[in-house]
Amino acid sequence: MAEKLTLNLKELSKRTEGLASGHRACAGCPFPAIIKMILGAADDPVVVANATGCMEVVTTIFPYTAWPVPWIHNAFENAAATISGVESAYKALLRKGKIPGNKKIKFIAFGGDGGTYDIGLQSLSGAIERGHNFLYVLYDNEGYMNTGIQRSSATPFAAHTTTSPAGKVIPGKTQHRKDLTEIVAAHNLPYAAQASPSHWNDLIRKVRKALSVEGPTFISIISPCVPGWGYPEHMSIELAKLAVETKFWPLYEVENGYYKINYKPRNPLPVIEFLKPQARFKHILNRPDLIEEIQRFVDERWERLLWLEQRKPEENK
Amino acid sequence: MKKKGWKELPEGAIIPAAPTSPEFKTGDWRIQKPVWNEDKCVHCLLCWLYCPDSAIKVKDGKVVAFDYEYCKGCGICEQVCPPKIRAIEMVKEEI
Fold first, then answer.
1. Is residue B43 part of a domain?
2. Number of structural domains, chain B?
3. Is position B37 within any domain?
4. In this protein, which residues make up the domain named 4Fe-4S ferredoxin-type (chain B) (predicted)?
5. Domain that holds residue B61
6. HEC string for A124-144
């Protein structure tokens, strides 16, 4: 268990500088800040595996890399399988005495929603089921943004993408997003959580908790996308915050099967406040029926979480 | 960085020394730039935390400089600066 789970920013600034400057992420992209929080949260040295995606492409354009830690990219679908192999190699070297027994290393895999919800789902499921000791971080920008904004199974209902174009025939994507955190939680792993960069304290605490637990852990983090969602580039953190305040992106954790909602907005905003600043939803602003459908979906999931949260561990009863 | 021929490139696209990205300057992407007012700053470090380009330099828990060689001018620092402090202002970049 880490000594304490929260860190203030002064402490964090002494532990990491985050990604190096000079990476080619779009101006205003929030995932470099997410990486900063995660690298700073870790007490031990980390090894990172990255699925194909925006993060992998913009940070490692050969011969440049922005990563201050050992980093490996393999393919789109197998970040979890790759980190399983790295973690197993570490365990084997420990067993043979080739790495000193007191040298602790943490293993983190990063994947976008394309590499996690869709393409890498089976390798993630396999790695969790095998019980490797790693943290999987999903940065969810709700689409295949790197290849030009195609829909993924994380894209919300009615969002315009190049493969779910809003027009006379369809009003953007015709399906709701799938709930990956719940799919991961169904593996009965020790820890799974949802976080947002706007709530940095909560995010850092979750990363530290996940890294202190033995076994596979998972954190899903919302990562607004400037070109994909269509909003002014200074608004990335504001949009992540609106997603939480409208209950579109609930901050919760599942620890050994027990649910806890970490933040309940006192005066939750209607979901339209989250949709309004985004160009991908501008075609539905005069379609109250579609907005109502998104609101219904958000409320239903929130009610379900409240219901799940009622089941408390024995010691807290 | 001088371009290498295929004989000098490492096998398997390994980059042996990291990070190397600071050799690539991203400051010329900028169309507006943040101007930091040191007197107003309370060093809450939110701008440092959220700067996507690691262009805000912190030493001993205090903001010390903005690095315009890498700042892409997104304006997140101005946005996250506490409303009562407002120590960062985005101004149009002059050429």
1. yes
2. 1
3. yes
4. 32-61, 62-93
5. 29-92
6. HHHHHHHCCCCEEEEEECCCE
